[in-house]
Structures are given as C-alpha cells and as structure tokens.
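Subject — a protein and its fold
Encoding — discrete vocabulary of local shapes:
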Amino acid sequence: MTAIMQVGKEGVTPALLATLGDALEARELIKLSVLETCPLEVKEALEVLSTELKAVPVAAIGRKVILFRPSSDKSRRNISLKLGGKTS
C-alpha cells in the first residue's frame, strides 16, 4: 500500500480534510505520509485526522499513518470490522 497524500508544512487544513474525506469514501483505507515539515508530530497528526474525519486510526509507523472509515454507501464497502461482536 502506497501513501496517497502528504501532510506537509501547512499541517491539517480544511482542504486536506475534504480531499481525505473523499478518498476514505472511495477507498475506505488510506495511507498518508507526515512530512518532517508538518507542525504536528506523527501521532498528533493521526489523532487530529482520525477525529476530524471520524475515521479509525489503524497505525502510525515511522512517518506513515493509516486510517480506516467504512464507506457510507453499503454497496461500496470492501472492508468490515468486528467491533464488540458486531460487524460494521
């Protein structure tokens, strides 16, 4: 899985959130690079992104982060999670 986008010196912006929201809707699982120029630390960026995008933070490895959010269109869902015994 390759990173589809970078979080750079501007940090987490409304434009970035809109683009990532569209990407999550289409792909459900996305990988991002947090550049060294980003004003946030990697784990901080992951926390902000997951909160703002209402996504599940999957991993932060090095400067890469992975987020998951099921598509709102059930016919487009490719990934399911078992949360508390319920399939999402």
